[in-house]
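Subject: Sanity check before I submit

Could someone independently write out the structure tokens for this chain? I want to compare against mine line by line before I put it in a report. The sequence has 93 residues.
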Amino acid sequence: SYRPDPTSAEQLAALAAVTGGRVFQEGELAPTAAAIRDALGSGPTQVVGRTQHDDPVGPYVAFAALLPLAFLFSPRAGRGRRRAPAPPVSAQS
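---
Independent answer below. Compare away.
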């Protein structure tokens, strides 16, 4: 089962003191929400620099999948392989 670190409250308090922040307890939702609103401020908002740009990756994936096949079926792919010589044909009369 989970047991919280007993020194975590001290560590968080020290971090908050150094950074100028605050530490809230588990059930303090209203003060936490108020602190967030104070930090964010208020005023009009606007969307800046938002554009939609789609880059289809399907063709690249298909091309990458075909590369090994192209190598396998290329005329140069068979150069390194040699067939075993055929056994000699004996003439029996």
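---
OP: Matches mine. For the report I'm noting this point. Residues 86 and 92 are 18 Å apart (CA to CA).
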